[in-house]
Design a protein that fits this description.
Blueprint (H helix, E strand, L loop, with lengths): L3 H13 L36 H30 L12 E4 L6 H14 L4 E3 L8 H8 L7 E4 L4 H4 L2 H15 L5 E6 L2 H17 L3 H6 L6 H5 L7 H9 L3 E5 L3 H12 L37 H10 L1 H19 L4 H20 L6 H20 L14
Parallel strand pairs: 1-3, 1-4, 2-3, 4-5
Helix pairs in contact: 1-2, 1-15, 2-14, 3-15, 4-6, 6-10, 11-14
Length: 397
């Protein structure tokens, strides 16, 4: 089991995005207050209590998986230097995260947000606007200096998006990033699960529609595909051709494999891709912003008639989902067993970190790391809902 000091060093490295810290260090980003100028003779000495047993057990698991991550990253880096294909392909340094609705996009988007914050990358954050007003905003914002990261979440983008507008959005990202060569990242989810979640979160509480009214309303057909500019199955080849190799689907049911593949294709360390679950944030019924969460009714509990209507309602979603699954499978096969191994490490690291942060009796430094992960989740979501500048939460030095 790692010592308290060793764990502090590892957590410091985790926050800074490197796992090379093997000696106890004082992690400057955790401390925003200046050091005391009092003389040693007049300063009282205080001893911080040690971590709880829960923290010790969870930290041992985290320490173990982070060491494995470091070994994995070193193996990949060596193959990259040796020119082992496909790792010899030059990684993309810029990316756009296209945030879709009810696809676990807040948790996934926060992963990419944290990477940008760790590396002080300039972020272009599009305003949270309704519908085709974004065309006017594109014209205004395209004159801004090139950024490294674009974060995007547009209200009703699924309702209003068309293949033409989606392509215009890609051109807009090119102008913001100053290049056509960027990773375009977007979440996609099993169509039926997405449909059930969308109804329970948006339609039932906000639109006050019954299930039968919802199924009969064409406004909500194939919303997930429409967010990617796909209105019909025949649109898929054209849209995918225009996005090209830049497209990086995050398949929710295979999120860890998707993240591991992204790391390999874009030369990211695995430690940057940890999905954090704040176990203490809610009581599993109320979200951080006060929105009520409820579990969706299982598909097999619906009548045969309702099941058939649901499948018809997401026919295009299902076709695009198959494209994403096929892309994930084919690309993963190029990397031998690296995607499978990386996925297991990302999964276990996220679980271990979340378990650690749920413990009582954390020392100050561990608490600061947990707060950073927790609040960057919230900060990412809040910053997407207003046209506000993004300032560093914790300065990285």
């Amino acid at each position: 089991m790692p010592s308290h000091a060793t764990l502090a060093a590892v957590l410091c490295g985790l926050l800074l995005g490197t796992l090379t810290h093997i000696e106890p260090v004082r992690c400057a980003p955790f401390h925003n207050t200046p050091p005391s100028t009092s003389s040693p003779s007049t300063t009282a000495t205080t001893t911080e209590p040690g971590p709880s047993q829960c923290a010790l057990d969870a930290s041992a698991a985290l320490h173990h998986v982070l060491k494995q991550m470091a070994s994995y990253d070193l193996e990949v880096a060596r193959d990259r230097v040796r020119g082992v294909p496909p790792l010899d392909a030059p990684p993309r340094s810029k990316f756009a995260y296209y945030k879709t609705h009810k696809t676990a996009s807040t948790s996934t988007g926060a992963v990419f947000y944290r990477h940008a914050r760790r590396n002080n990358l300039p972020i272009s954050n599009l305003p949270h606007v309704v519908g085709k007003k974004r065309i006017h905003l594109m014209a205004e914002d395209s004159a801004k200096p090139p950024s490294s990261v674009v974060l995007n979440h547009l209200t009703r983008q699924g309702v209003d998006m068309t293949p033409e507008l989606f392509v215009a959005s890609l051109k807009f990202y090119e102008s913001l990033l100053g290049t056509e060569d960027f990773a375009f990242v977007g979440n996609i989810r099993h169509p039926i699960k997405h449909l059930l979640s969308f109804y329970g979160y948006y339609v039932e509480p906000l639109e006050k529609q019954t299930w039968d009214q919802f199924l009969a309303n064409p406004l909500f057909d194939n919303l997930m595909a429409r967010e990617f500019g796909v209105g019909n199955v025949s649109d898929i080849p054209r849209v995918m051709d225009q996005v090209g190799d830049r497209m990086e689907f995050m398949v929710v049911e295979h999120i860890y494999e998707s993240l591991a593949l992204f790391a390999l294709r874009n030369s990211w360390p695995l430690s940057h891709l940890i999905v954090f679950h704040a176990l203490k944030r809610t009581d599993n019924s109320v979200r951080w912003d006060g929105k009520i969460l409820k579990k969706s009714k299982p598909f097999d509990e619906f009548s045969a008639l309702h099941q058939a209507k649901m499948k018809a309602k997401v026919e295009v979603d299902a076709a695009l989902y198959k494209v994403a699954l096929r892309q994930l499978k084919e690309r993963s096969q190029e990397y031998r067993d690296l995607v499978e191994r990386g996925a297991e490490l990302v999964k276990h690291a996220g679980h271990a970190l979340s378990q650690l942060c749920a413990c009582d009796g954390l020392d100050r430094q561990t608490s600061e790391v947990c707060k950073w992960y927790d609040w960057t989740d919230l900060e990412y979501e809040v910053n997407l809902q207003a046209d506000v500048p993004i300032s560093p939460l914790i300065p990285i030095t």
